[in-house]
Amino acid sequence: MPNQVPGRAASVPKAGRNLPVAIGVGLALLAALAVGLLWAPWFFVLISAAALSLAVVEIHQALLRKDMHAQVRCIVAGTLISVLGAYAMFRWQLGLAPTTFAVICVGGTVLACLVARLLLQGPEGFIRDIAASALIIAYIPLMGIFIPLMMVESHGTRRIIVVVVCVVASDTGAYAVGSLLGRHKMAPRVSPSKTWEGFAGSIVTAAIIGAVAVVWCLGAPWWLGLILGLCIAPAATLGDLVESLIKRDVGIKDMSNFLPGHGGVMDRLDSMLAAVPVGWLVLHLSLGG
After folding, report:
1. Does this entry carry the keyword Mitochondrion (predicted)?
2. Are 108 and 142 a contacting pair, CB within 8 Å?
3. Residue 176 and residue 258: Cα distance in Å, rounded?
4. Which of 68, 102, 117, 208 is most solvent-facing, going by the fewest CB within 10 Å?
5. How far apart are the first and last CA of the chain?
């Protein structure tokens, strides 16, 4: 049995996580999100923009392990401008529809990356590096822009809450059912702990919680929440698997140490990034803007 450093066994579990720090960071994040969603929507958008920007940096650092050099400064700037600007367009009625502004920003970010790579470096590795930039743009700001787009619609913060609750229900259901009944591996080479039984649990839990959440938060029919949960659970699972696949490909456990005790920002955003566009679409088609 390996030797243990006295005094550390209680605070650092076998997985290497500092439990008190992880709990403290988790509670701080929860408090910040609660303040933003319940009382200060602009603060929630600001937190979202900051988190997405850190996620861009994390993916960039991961791709560097594959010698793929994205134009990270351009992408961070584009992410901040698109997320904050889309909300500002609605909040202060600046002339452009938030959706139009978001599309312009994402397209502009692609062009900025092309120009920056063209001017700053030679032809060697151009395709590889632009592919890295395109991957990050599609993965982070293009998916994340649906956060402010959902916020600017009627009862926007409540819609966000419903989607977040469905994602949490999906993760909880997958963990609970998978731990108790999981036998058949879903993707053993990507995420050995995920099972088809856990996936079924995530769908059922998200659908039930979604049905309750839309009635309580939005005053919408229960069946809409059922559909929402049925759509969000697979999206959240996909988001988790995609991030796991990236980490396995580059050979890392956590995306970064930006969040002590939790790993990287992407380790917390992975499910949400894929679920928010799906949640926006379902609610937009059903309830309008």
Report:
1. no
2. no
3. 28
4. 208
5. 60
At position 13, the amino acid (one-letter code) is: P
Rounded CA separation 284/270 (Å): 22
- Amino acid code (one letter) for 226: L
Q: Are 226 and 36 in contact (CB under 8 A)?
A: no
Find where tokens 């978001």 sit: 102
Structure tokens at 278: 């799906």
C-alpha–C-alpha distance, residues 207 and 175, integer Å: 16
**Burial class of residue 285 in the structure, from the number of CB atoms within 10 Å of its CB (0-12 exposed, 13-18 middle, 19+ buried):** exposed
Return the SS3 of 191: strand
| Lowest-confidence region among 88-97, 133-142, 255-264 | 255-264
What one-character-per-residue DSSP string does 56-125 give? Answer: HHHHHHHHHTTT----HHHHHHHHHHHHHHHHHHHHTT-SS-HHHHHHHHHHHHHHHHHHHHHHHS-STT
For 10, 26, 81, 259, the CA distances from 21, given in Å and listed in that order, are: 12, 8, 32, 9
In order of 18, 149, 200, 242, 256, the CA distances from 262 in angstroms are 9, 28, 26, 18, 9
**pLDDT 10s digits, 93-147:** 787 899 999 999 999 999 999 999 999 888 899 999 999 999 999 999 999 999 9
* DSSP codes joined into one string, 38-65: HT-HHHHHHHHHHHHHHHHHHHHHHHHT
CB 49 within 8 A of CB 80: yes
